[in-house]
Amino acid sequence: MSHELINHSPDLRRLRDEGYQIEVKGAYVFLHNVPYVNCQREIQAGTLVSTLHLSGGQTLKPDTHAIHFIGEQPCDKNGQTIQGIMHPSSRTEKLGEGIVVDRSFSNKPPNGYRDYYHKFIRYIEILAAPAKSINPEAKANLFLPVIDTLDDSPFHYVDTHSSRANIGAVSDKLRSQRIAIIGLGGTVSYVLDLVAKTPVSEIHLFDGDEFLQHNAFRAPSAPTFKQLEIKENKAVYFASIYSNMKKNIHPHSEYVTSDNVQLLLDYDFVFICIDEGEFKKDIIPHLLEHKIPFVDVGMDVKNVDNSLLADVRTTTVTPSQSDHIPQRISLTSSINDMYESNIQIAELNALNAAMAVIKWKKQLGFYHDHRREVNSIYTTNTGEISND
C-alpha cells in the first residue's frame, strides 16, 4: 500500500526521490528524521505526521494546513520555543491505528498548501533552520531505505474520514469485532451499510431468502432490473456490493435455525433483524447461554385513518442485562402487522438500523452512554423516543 500510493502520487514520490524517508500508514503519511533543536539546544530527529486527503489511490491537495509531530518541543538555536507554529492541540494525542503524536503545529500559507511536498518541505524548513544554524550538515533527506508498512487495513482503500475527523483512536475500539447479521430485509441491509463503514475485522451475513423487486424499495443502493431478474440470495447480493469497500464480508445463504445456531458462537456481537419469532426462540437462548451481546430490532406498522402509525423498537441485550427480554422482544409473529407484508418504509428501516448500530457502538465505548438504556421506541405519531 505504501509504495503503491507513493508511486501514484507525484508529491509523495518527489519527497521519496529527493531522499526523504516517508511512510504511509492507514490514512496518515509520516516523514521521519526531521532535524530540530530541543530546549537543551541539542539537535534531535523528529517525525512529521499528516492526514492524507485521497481520491482513489492518489493524493489530493491537503485538506488541512496543520500537522502533527512526534518528538520534543522544537526550539530556536537558543533553546526557546518556536512560537510561530504553536497549535492549540499541542499535546500528546492518539490518532488511531496505533499512532501517538506528541504535539501539533499550524502554519498556513495564504492559499493553503498546493500538495504534500509543499506542506512537508515548509514545516521541515521551519523546524530544521535552528538545527542548521548549529550544524550546517543537519538535513532531513538522508536517502535512507523507504519504509513499507504492510497493509492490514480492514478496507480496500484508506479510511480518510476517521483521520479528517480525528476519531481514529475512537474507531479503533471497533477494530477487533467479529459481527454476525441475521436476516437481510429492509432494516438489516441498512445495518450492514453502517457497520461496513467501520473497521470491524469480519462481517458475516445470514439469510436464506432471495433479493426480489420489493426488497429494492426498502434497501440501500439501486439494483438494475437485470440484477432483480437473477433472484440472487440476499446474503450473496449484499456481500458483493459492500465487498467493494470492506474486506472480510462473508455471506451465508441460509437461515439460522436450531440446526445451525452453533455457527453464532464465534462472534463478538449479533444483530437480529428478523420478523419470525419462532427463529428467535432458537437464536436468543443460544446467545444468552454463551454470553454473546446482541441487538434485536422490530417495527409495528398500522394504517390508521389512511395514514401509517409506526413504532420502531431497538432492544439491547448483554450478558449482564437480559431480564427485560420477555417484555420487549416478541417470540411470535403478528398476523395483523402490515410490516410483514413488506410495506415500503425505507426511512423507518434506516432509522431502526441507525438506532441499533448506535447501541452497539455505545456498548464498546465509541459513544458516551450515560443512561445505558436497553430498550428504545420511536413513535411516528408523537415524534418521541421512549427509553428504559
Describe the structure.
By secondary structure, the chain is of the alpha+beta class. 28% of the residues lie in helices and 24% in strands. It contains 12 helices and 17 strands. The chain has helices spanning 2-8, 10-17, 116-134, 160-165, 168-171, 186-195, 213-216, 225-230, 234-242, 277-289, 325-328, 346-363; strands at 22-25, 28-37, 43-51, 54-55, 58-59, 66-70, 93-96, 99-101, 103-106, 178-182, 202-206, 249-252, 269-272, 294-304, 307-317, 375-379, 384-387. An 8-stranded mixed beta sheet has the order 12-11-10-13-14-15-16-17, with helices on one face. Strands 1-2-3-6-9 form a 5-stranded antiparallel beta sheet. Strand 13, helix 10 (277-289) and strand 14 form a beta-alpha-beta unit. Helix 1 crosses helix 2 and helix 6 (186-195) crosses helix 12 (346-363). It is elongated and about 80 Å long. The model is unreliable at 335-339 (pLDDT under 50).
Quick summary of this structure?
By secondary structure, the protein is of the alpha+beta class. Helix content is about 30%, strand content about 25%. Strands 12-11-10-13-14-15-16-17 form an eight-stranded mixed beta sheet, with helices on one face.
